Amino acid sequence: AVAAAMRLGAVLSALRPALPLLLGLSLGCSLSLLRASWSHGAAEERCLAPGPPALPAHGAAPEAAEGRPVSGHEDFRPRIVPYYRDPNKPYKKVLRTRYIQTELGFHERLFVAVLTSKATLNTLAVAVNKTVAHHFPRLLYFTGLRSAKVPHGMVLVAHGDERPIWLMYETMNYIHQHFGSDYDWFYIMQDDTYAQAEQVKALVTHLSINQDVYLGRAEEFIGGDEQARYCHGGFGYLLSRSLLLKLHPHLDSCRNEILSVRPDEWLGRCIIDFLGITCVSQLQGQNYHTYELAKNTEPEKEEEEEFQAALAVHPVSDMTLMYRLHKQFSRIQLDRVYQEIQDLQMQIRNLTALTPAGEAGVTWPVGINAPFLPKSRFEVISWDYFTEQHLFSCPDGSPKCELSGASKADVSEIIESAVEQLNRLYQPLLRFSKRQLLNGYRRFDPTRGMEYTLDLLLEAATQKGHSHVLAKRVSLVRPLSKVEIIPMPYVTEATRVQLVLPLTVQDLDFVANFLDMFAMNTLDTHDNALLTLLFIYHPYDAQRVGQVDVFAGVKAMVGELEKRYAEVKIPWISVKTEVPSQVKLMDIVSKKHPVDTLFFLASVWTEINMEFLNRCRMNTISNWQVFFPVHFQEFNPALVYRGEQTPSSNTDFLRDGHFDRHSFAEACFYNSDYMAARTKLAADILDRDEVLESMEVFDVFLHYSGLHLFRAVEPGLVQKYTLRSCNPRLSEELYHRCVLSNLEGLASRSHLAMALFEQEQANST
């Protein structure tokens, strides 16, 4: 018995840690069984109870005996529709839309129509286009008769008749036919109306698109029904898509039956008679505020709340008044934004005080991201030192350069802003004026923007007239604004690329490799690319070309390629010159090709591949953008590997080399763009052709075209190491750039240091 008791005690002591778990499991099972019995009983009672069936628990939709949802509740539960294909019917391929937005039936939000005339097209309509047109997603101008020349940047639709009612009728028909299925809202205004574009866009975001909306400034008909209202056309009005679709079948009847002098009254009467909808100035909690300008009004002095809240202002008598209104409303909007920023900053301060970090967690400026914290010394963002005259971190690598252009304007604006902020902070007790910038530092932080630290020598004046000179350090941040996507024209990869390869006597050893790569990557793959060779003869070699042609071997290689590929012709052009200027050579090539030719100016060390040619096509846009790729230059293998085996290019791609930013030999551009820039250059230099020797094609586009210059690293252009010959007859800048390219292409700093170390060790022994 004692032994049994001891064994029982040992078992209980072993199970004691698990007793809470066992008790919890037992209690949970008991409660679940009890709840199941209650639920079962309640369900039986509901099934047996007379009257309409109750909704199931958890808000689920009721179902019939067949398992289908009851009518009226099909939106609450998704149904899987099985795919069934009738074997007796022929198969028809389903065509999908290009964009999912089209397939789902999404519409753009707002379309704007501006009613103008031939008399005001070049005045008020231009003012509307310059002030608010770029704020609306789509805006068209409608007129009866058009002038001989349409102002630039305006999409104009002329109906051929200046009668106001006819213009309104044709405009409504045109909007329905071309845009009725693409937009949810249609805003119609006159060219003597100033509309706050951002306020109009905000208005439509708060309105439901499921209602028939006729919103504007409601006016009474003369001698008509007191309940009916039409929207005054001078203040603009908003129509919903559903109303436009219902109105369109009745437009012909309205034109024949309704007589009116004013087009807005005619449209309002048409909507009322056939749809029974009257104009309203308030809908769904949103008000359509307007303001009527009096004669000789000065917008700068208008301080009424009604003026500041107005979505539309009418009448605007001339262009100057339109610009003044735009300036005043922009100032009002800017003040609202600044006040909203201050309110948000105050809320951030109040909320940050309640966080674990407390007030120490508030970043400066409030609401802007904290400065980037580097995790290693390689991530440290360096500061650039500057004064009011010089910059000590220059793009070309020189230690000191003159502060000019955008950098000078940036520094001047920052200093002016710093003094203004100090005066705003300390006035009226102190008044600061700048004497000198002692030190300036700036750096670009990609997480927040451009940061500045200024040491200013200031003169502080008190209210009593006393002044004192003091030095003060200030910090400023120019934060990153909202990122915008720049619209770009659509391009394809089907464009033919015309390769242009200039060759000199020094390039003969590398031509064979270039032609082999061209044949393998373009001719074998049937890529849409052609090649033109440009043989540059020295005057001495040109005189002896009848006896000894230095390019005879290259011409033989070209002949072999043309025999191998019967459909391919590789033309060449011979040029005699001592100074092979890139611009002069392109002048010759440009005249022999159509204006729509896409050129790729290559070098003999370039290894052509399909990947880069496609990027050349996509990055070059006619009348918009030219592309200057930065090729990858491999280092000298004698210095990098020092007798070791060279690794394969697949495993060490873009490793032992650098992107040569000093080279502008490769370029992609259209012939039409080059010809336009070259025409401006010719008018600037007149007959001074020696200026061309100091320029490259990049300089021509940079200084004599308004195109985008896209300069980016190109991993698809990899060049083997070679020591290039620099022509001393070129300009000093071009020769210096060539020498730098050779020097930086030798090896990296670590490889050069190791080579020097090994050389010193060898000399010491």
TrEMBL record:
Tell me if Membrane is a UniProt keyword of this record: yes
Query: Is-annotated flag, keyword Transmembrane?
Result: yes
Q: What cellular-component terms does GO give this entry?
A: Golgi cisterna membrane
Q: Which GO terms describe its molecular function?
A: glucuronosyl-N-acetylgalactosaminyl-proteoglycan 4-beta-N-acetylgalactosaminyltransferase activity; N-acetylgalactosaminyl-proteoglycan 3-beta-glucuronosyltransferase activity
Name of the featured protein? Hexosyltransferase
| Membrane topology of this protein | Single-pass type II membrane protein
Q: Which family does this protein fall into?
A: Belongs to the chondroitin N-acetylgalactosaminyltransferase family.
EC code: 2.4.1.-
Q: Which gene holds the coding sequence for this protein?
A: Chpf2
The record's listing under InterPro entries reads: Chond_GalNAc, CS_glycosyltransferase
Task: Please tell me where this protein is predominantly located.
Answer: Golgi
Q: Which UniProt keywords apply?
A: Glycoprotein, Golgi apparatus, Membrane, Signal-anchor, Transferase, Transmembrane, Transmembrane helix
Supply the enzyme class, top level. Answer: transferase
Which cellular compartments is it found in? Golgi apparatus, Golgi stack membrane
